[in-house]
Amino acid sequence: DARLQLIETLQQQDKLSQAQQQMRESLAQNPESLPLRKTYARSLLADGHHLEAIKVLRSQPLPAVAQDLEYHALLAALLQETRQFGAAAQAYAGLLQIHPEKALWWFGLAVSMDQSGDFDQARNAYRRALALPGLSRDVQKYVQKRLQIL
Question: Which residue, 4, 89, 13, is CA-closest to 42?
């Protein structure tokens, strides 16, 4: 907790390299800390180091999906961002098994399936995303456009 507070303070003071150094040292001492892994992954993501962020989040032991939805949602988004669509689809499917009412996760699954060429599954996921509340207007328009194309 003290390390996380120090890291947060360094980030607020725009001492990002020092904050990342503290994160690396803290993870070396406590590699199982999920809050620390998420913080470090977000920091790497902000610096454009997507693959490094994925590596941090894939460190063992992985939490169960139900134990930390935020952790797995971050991993799913990073996998999709790095065009690892099969892995991203699996991650979104795992999240949806726990909370099937999340429109954004249906959208993530749909995009991953769409990009993987599984158009039937993509259509179904896009429809599920549209049927649920929570998508921005722009995302809704994108989904409707993709459904017309598919």
Answer: 4
* One-letter amino acid of 66: A
- Please give the angle made by the CA atoms of 147, 148 and 150, to the nearest 5 degrees: 60
The pLDDT, as a whole number, for residue 13 is: 84
Q: Output the pTM of the full model.
A: 0.86
Q: 66: helix, coil or strand?
A: helix
Give, as one character, the DSSP assignment of residue 17: H
Q: Which residue has the tokens 């795992």?
A: 94
pLDDT at 18: 85
pLDDT beneath 70: ranges in the chain = none
DSSP class of residue 58 equals T
What's the gap between Cα 120 and its chain centre?
24
Q: Residues near 106 by Cβ (< 8 Å), separated by ≥ 6?
A: 92, 96, 125, 126, 128, 129, 132
Which pLDDT score, from 0 to 100, does residue 132 have? 97
What is the DSSP code string of 25-41?
A: HHHHH-TT-HHHHHHHH
Alpha-helix runs per DSSP H in the chain:
2-12, 16-29, 34-46, 50-57, 69-81, 85-98, 103-116, 119-131, 137-149
